[in-house]
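Instructor's aside before we start: the two examples that follow are unrelated to each other. I chose them only because their records fit on one page, so don't look for a connection. First example below.
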Amino acid sequence: MRRAIEEAGRAALAGDVPVGAVVLGPDGAVLATGHNEREATGDPTAHAEVLALRRAAGAHGQWRLTGCTLVVTLEPCVMCAGALVQSRVDRLVFGAADEKAGAVGSLWDLVRDRRLNHRPEVVRGVLAEECADQLTRFFRDRAAP
């Protein structure tokens, strides 16, 4: 999670919402990282999770990320939750809950929907306070005159 927090800091420096993600391979080694790049790229799908999953698939040599873990600082939204289900990630670890857009238990619980063919293990709340503080500082600083 510390590596994901570092990635989130890179997003903040670029003026984007500080969310960072890391994909760990089956052996626990870092396959790929990502942070929000929507502002930098003008791409609404450039969320940390999507970018990390794309890069991990490239490094892994296939789109099925079986045995891999996605670590992200903020509870994934519907788009990102769908992407991690589709990529067959075995485990999701996230920090702060997202009461406004979270799709892993806050508003929806897409990743554990029994109608889907793949349901990753979910570990929530890892370094949650630190992840939430990073987001709070970002939005507080943007609102300051």
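Example two begins here.
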Amino acid sequence: MSNIDNLMMEITPEVLLKAYASGIFPMADSADDPGLFWVEPDYRGVIPLDGFHTPKRLARTIRQEKFDLRISTAFERTVDLCAEEAPDRKETWINQRIRQLYSELHLMGHAHSVESWLDGELVGGLYGVSLGGAFFGESMFSRTRDASKVALAHLVDRLNFNRFVLLDTQFNTEHLSQFGALEIPKRDYLKLLSDALDVEARFV
């Protein structure tokens, strides 16, 4: 019986955490679809926390301290902006049920946003879920050049500082590959996940 078979029940925040601990996560077909389905990829995207690559131009942007970086000061707004259409993303899988569930996880202390602010405006960021020593990245957005990339670099620094051992990106993409992301088989991922769940880490 697969992990998905074990979780064919109403999705609550508690069930969602159990799903992450089992190596699966929910998605929707579209923003307008009220339903959710479980995803258990055969190959999983991860960014090794000891192997994050910072491209030269991004490193310059970080040194300039152009953005005001904040943690979870506008979590729901970050999720909303991740769900909006953008020139490079015409569709989104973030529906109303996703927003509700992750807002509840945020109130429980398990969902967090990393935000890039510029001149008082939220212009980029990401959100995800922490559990043990694992952080599960969900989505990111950018309304200004490098805003989401700086947020990602800040996330990695914070995870390393707080002794996290796994940064899960769900899938690997060409965009994430520039930062050192790679794709690993499910069996290897589940071993990394099991080890990470034994780690006592706190996202602060």
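The chain has a mean pLDDT of 92.
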